[in-house]
Each structure stands twice: as C-alpha cells, then as structure tokens.
C-alpha cells in the first residue's frame, strides 16, 4: 500500500494526543477525521487546533507546506464512528490508557473497516499483543507510540504485534516519514518499548542519586539539561561513544568498558517511587510551584523551546 494513493486518516479520541496527531497528519496534506464519542468534544478539538495552527503560523513555526487555513480545511469531526471511518486507510487510536477501553474500541473499529485498513494505537505502556488480543485480523495492527508533545518531538516508535505484516510496518514508516515524524522500528514487542525503557533507567538512577543525598533535584536536572541532554539532542548514546574514542565504539569499550561495568554494578535497587515521592516532590515544588498556573506556564515554555530546537535541527 502506497501512502501517495491514500489520503484519509481517522483519529479516534480528541484529547491532547489525538489533537496532536491530527495536526501532524494535516501538516502532511492528509485529510483527517476526528472521532470522539463524547458530544461536542471533537468539534471543540478542531477549535483548539485552529487556535494552535494560527499561532504557529504567526510565529513562522507551522509544519508542512500548506497554510493554516489549508490545513484546517482538511479537518472534520464526527460523533458517529462508522461515518468517521469512511474512506480511511489508516486509523490512529488515542483513547484512555486503559486496556479494556482500547480493546473494545478496536473491536468496534474492526467491524466497520475493510481488511486492508491499518489499525494503530498510541499506547505508551501496553504491548500490542494485549491491545489487539480481541481483534480478529491482527496482521494489520501495530503501536505507533508518539512522544509528548508529538508536534514538536518527532520520534515515533513503531511496535509490531507478533502477527504484524512487514508491509504494514513499511506503510506506517512511510506515512510517518511523509508527515515529518522520525519513525523507529522495534523488531518485536517489549514492555516499555525502547524510549520508556531508556527513560526509566535515567529516572531510576536520578531518583537514587537524589534519595541517597548525592545531589539535589535541581542539579540532577542540570546534569541532563546542560550536559547529557545537550549532546543527546543531536546524537544518540551509541554515536556518542563511537565518537569519543580515536578508533570508534570498540576502542571506547577497550578503554572505558571496565569502568562502565564497575559503575553499573554499583547501581542500587529499583526505587519505591510511591513511598519516596513526597520528599522529592517537596524539593521539586520549591523550584516550580505545583499550582496549575505555574505548571501551565512551564509546559508552554517547554513547548516553545522544543519548537525552536526542532527548527534548529531541521535547518542544520
């Protein structure tokens, strides 16, 4: 299936992730039908998308070659699932992160679409074999896990069900590339996928270092934002070590592998995040107050910085 022959995508769910996916897809020139079973929610989503696209256009940060008005013309909203799915070649599910809800949604979708339609989930923590366990034709199913916020952070993890066809992975990879995302393929499913497993390792060790009195919350965040993050925003950990020794990765491991193994063996057990959160949260709130106004302002600033970083990477 070629994405050049397919122009209609259905987004199921009109929350933050659903709206973000819709914005990504219309930026690539695809017609997008947003479905939500809650009355008025899909229409409200389009109103919010309109506001965001107009602001992005004014800031000269709008993605794609179409104007904001042209992109908005590609959007439509539905409260009837059958109507929302008409003509779609690709369905991106963005409902609550509850297994039973997702399973039910995909059962409903499967009854209403042809066998060639690709069924994709945005889940961040549920493996495809669970999400699609009640679907009959699982060969066209996969997870397309975005990173929040998807409009600014372009990575998408493509995670196959054990029965997913290679052609389905290929078509989805081509679609994500066409709309400007950066898709990566996992060869098989694993709990947490790739991004969340790497993120969990970083969170766990950062947490241990704070909890053990080695470093403050403020300074461990600086270790990432002013240290590792500066580098990893442009090159990954494998390329980093490949470039950090005269003869590449193997040479790096000959020089530093023993020390790396020594440090890794000193890592403590998995933290008890729930029982230990109160103290760390108190220190965090001293830096960023936990009220809605401060959190919203910080998130807005985060998105602005991500937007500028994305533009910088594109220009270079």
Q: Could you write a compact summary of the structure shown?
A:
The chain is of the alpha/beta class. Helices cover 52% and strands 12% of the residues. It has helices spanning 16-27, 41-58, 68-72, 81-85, 99-110, 128-131, 166-178, 195-211, 217-232, 237-243, 249-265, 273-287, 292-315; strands at residues 8-12, 31-35, 75-78, 90-93, 118-121, 141-146, 155-160, 182-185.
Number of strands: 8
Beta-strand content bin = 5-15%
Kindly provide the radius of gyration, computed on alpha-carbon positions and rounded to a whole number of angstroms: 21 Å
Mean pLDDT: 94
So how many helices? 13
Helix/strand structural class: alpha/beta
- Poorly predicted spans: none
Order of helices and strands: EHEHHEHEHEHEEHEHHHHHH
Ends distance: 32 Å
- Let me know the largest β-sheet: 8 strands, mixed
Proportion of residues in helical segments: 40-55%
Kindly report the spatial arrangement of strands forming the biggest sheet: 3-2-1-4-5-6-7-8
Shape summary: globular
């Amino acid at each position: 299936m070629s994405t050049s022959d397919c122009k209609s995508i259905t987004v199921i769910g009109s929350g933050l992730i659903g709206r973000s996916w819709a914005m990504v897809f219309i930026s690539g020139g695809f017609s997008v039908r947003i479905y939500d079973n809650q009355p008025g929610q899909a229409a409200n989503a389009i109103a919010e998308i309109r506001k965001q696209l107009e602001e992005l256009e004014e800031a000269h940060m709008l993605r794609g070659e179409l104007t904001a008005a042209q992109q908005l013309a590609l959007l439509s909203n539905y409260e009837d699932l059958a109507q929302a799915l008409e003509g779609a070649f690709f369905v991106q599910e963005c409902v609550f992160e509850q297994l039973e809800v997702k399973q039910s949604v995909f059962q409903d979708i499967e009854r209403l679409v042809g066998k060639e339609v690709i069924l994709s989930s945005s889940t961040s923590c549920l493996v495809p074999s669970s999400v699609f366990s009640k679907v009959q034709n699982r060969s066209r199913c996969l997870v397309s896990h975005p990173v929040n916020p998807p409009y600014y952070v372009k990575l998408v993890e493509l995670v196959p069900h054990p029965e997913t066809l290679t052609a389905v992975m290929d078509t989805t990879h081509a679609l994500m590339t066409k709309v400007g995302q950066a898709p990566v393929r996992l060869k098989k499913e694993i709990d947490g996928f790739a991004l969340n497993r790497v993120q969990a390792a970083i969170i766990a060790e950062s947490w241990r270092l704070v909890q053990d009195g080695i470093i403050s919350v403020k300074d461990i965040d600086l270790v990432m934002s002013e240290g590792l993050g500066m580098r990893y925003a442009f090159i990954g950990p494998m390329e980093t070590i490949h470039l950090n020794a005269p003869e590449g990765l193997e040479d790096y491991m000959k020089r530093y592998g023993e020390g790396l193994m020594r440090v890794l063996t000193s890592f403590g057990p998995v933290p008890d995040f729930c029982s230990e959160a109160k103290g760390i949260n108190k220190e965090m709130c001293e830096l960023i107050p936990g009220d809605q106004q401060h959190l919203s302002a910080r998130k807005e600033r985060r998105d602005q910085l991500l937007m500028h970083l994305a533009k910088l990477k594109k220009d270079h």
